Automatic annotation (TrEMBL):
This is GDP-fucose protein O-fucosyltransferase 2. Its EC number is 2.4.1.221. InterPro entries: GDP-Fuc_O-FucTrfase, OFUT2-like. It is found in: Endoplasmic reticulum; Golgi apparatus. Keywords: Carbohydrate metabolism, Disulfide bond, Endoplasmic reticulum, Fucose metabolism, Glycoprotein, Glycosyltransferase, Golgi apparatus, Signal, Transferase. It holds the Pfam family O-FucT. It comes from Anopheles culicifacies. Coiled coil: none annotated. GO terms for biological process: fucose metabolic process. GO terms for cellular component: endoplasmic reticulum; Golgi apparatus.
Length: 460
């Protein structure tokens, strides 16, 4: 009896040990979403058992997209959320359960002023934590896409896209006063986007297509599913490559809902940028996550709603200048007016330091400091040319946003996407709403001006 019992116990231990190893492998590799074929189930079971066998019969759909070149960094982040939420829905639909979203590189955006450094074809991993984003849905950077394309089609092969859709607004978006989700094909105007099969896509010379379609489009991202079904080839495809141009035209399905916030929370910044911002906070603002009560879980999925973040002993002001001085002059304050509003909030909050995130000129910043002589005014400037070269303009802007998102009090610019991204970061970190959703007025004498909309975070 004892011998039999010992054998059973030993077998149970072996069984549970193997079970734990299997579970750990699945958890460890759950963020990896590579190409899996039926034969891979036997050779690489831990990676491919995440798919059902019937899913492996479906084609892999690579969904690429682009945004109008005139759009800035922070609006492009918002367009990504629309596409990511759509992809997560698409992957629940039969025939698309192996779909992947290919992230468009960043290239010489209109607000990037450092023309003496190379800022072309930058991957998302330069600015964001791709591992974190992949935990929301199946996204891949452009270099990963090229690697997978080579795996499927061989080295030095031109990327042949099956379908390219160039979106454009309807001239009359409200028929009889009603906005209706729809798309409609129209004749493509002469354009440099497409010429005899060759395709202009972020300066890459290896993209081409034989199917370029121009569409008037209005509606939410979910309407793209109908578009993909409408133009789907009747022939059997093992892999499908689709490019959507001018994806900014596609609207959110429900802006600010749970899906939106899950995708947004997954967009954590690259560790290198967080480290740079952390050093600045520690050295110049005496700020750290522990003492500021801004510590976040390692994984965004483990975040829970709370409002007890304290922030560092400084105020952050985002003062948008440049094109806002002309396009939004009726709501954009002068430097003097901004300084007076900052001064009032510093006194109100009992703070002596203001961190400034702004695209203002050196002279404007000098004037701002003169208006705030009794207070400490600081801004982030790269320590050297080498650091600027490493960060790029987009990285510097993100460092500004990280520092602002950890301030005790934040005040931003009316209708600025840069400001809205900071609002979101502070919502995720867990600040009281009254310390976050604040907006500069045109004049310090009119503090009852129209303010930015308050969109609080939503959890399950």
């Amino acid at each position: 009896m004892r011998l039999h019992s010992f054998k059973v116990t030993l077998l149970d231990q072996i069984y549970y040990s193997l079970l734990l190893v299997t579970i750990s492998q699945i958890v460890h590799t759950s963020h990896i979403r590579e190409i899996c074929e039926k034969r891979d189930i036997f050779f690489e079971p831990f990676r491919c058992q995440l798919y059902d066998v019937d899913v492996l019969d479906e084609p892999i759909t690579y969904l690429l997209y682009d945004v109008n070149p005139s759009e800035g960094f922070n609006l492009r982040r918002d367009v990504y959320i629309r596409m990511a939420v759509f992809l997560e829905f698409l992957r629940t639909q039969q025939g698309y359960r192996r779909a992947k979203l290919v992230l468009p590189p960043w290239s010489n955006l209109v607000h990037w002023r450092s023309h003496n450094i190379d800022q072309t074809q930058l991957f998302w991993s330069h600015f964001f934590d791709l591992r974190s984003m992949k935990q929301y849905t199946n996204v891949i950077d452009m270099d990963e896409f090229f690697a997978e394309y080579e795996r499927l089609h061989g080295l030095d092969t031109e990327v042949m896209l099956d379908e390219v859709y160039k979106l454009k607004h309807f001239e009359n978006m409200f028929e009889n006063g009603v906005f209706v989700d729809k798309f409609e094909e129209h004749v493509c105007p002469k354009s440099h986007d497409y010429d005899a099969g060759a395709l202009a896509y972020f300066g890459y010379a290896n993209f081409s297509t034989e199917d370029f379609t121009c569409l008037h489009f209005q509606g939410s991202a979910m309407l793209l599913h109908k578009l993909l079904e409408t133009y789907k080839s009747p022939r059997i495809q093992h892999v499908r490559y689709v490019l959507v141009l001018n994806a900014e035209i596609v609207l959110h399905d429900l802006w600010g809902n749970v899906d939106y916030w899950e995708a947004r929370r997954s967009m954590r910044f690259a560790p290198e940028l967080i480290e740079v911002a952390g050093r600045f906070r520690a050295d110049l603002l005496d700020s750290s996550d522990q003492q500021d009560r801004t510590v976040r879980p390692t994984r965004w999925m483990d975040e829970r709603g709370h409002r007890n973040a304290r922030g560092g002993d400084y105020l952050c002001a985002h003062i948008r200048r440049a094109d806002f001085l002309y396009g939004r002059d009726k709501t954009t304050p002068t430097i003097q007016s901004a300084a007076l509003q900052i001064r009032a909030k510093l006194l109100e909050q009992g703070l002596k330091t203001v961190f400034v995130a702004s695209d203002c000129s050196r002279m404007e910043f000098y004037n701002l400091k003169n208006y705030l002589k009794r207070f400490r005014v600081v801004r982030f400037v790269p320590e050297s040319y080498e650091q600027r070269l490493a960060l790029k303009d987009g990285g510097i802007a993100i460092v500004d946003q990280i520092i602002c998102s950890h301030a005790r009090y934040f005040i931003g610019t009316y209708e600025s996407t840069f400001t809205y991204r900071i609002y979101e970061e502070r919502e995720i970190i867990g600040f009281p709403k009254e310390l976050t959703f604040n907006t500069f007025c045109k004049s310090e004498k009119d503090m009852n001006c129209e303010k930015n909309t308050v969109w609080p975070i939503v959890y399950h």
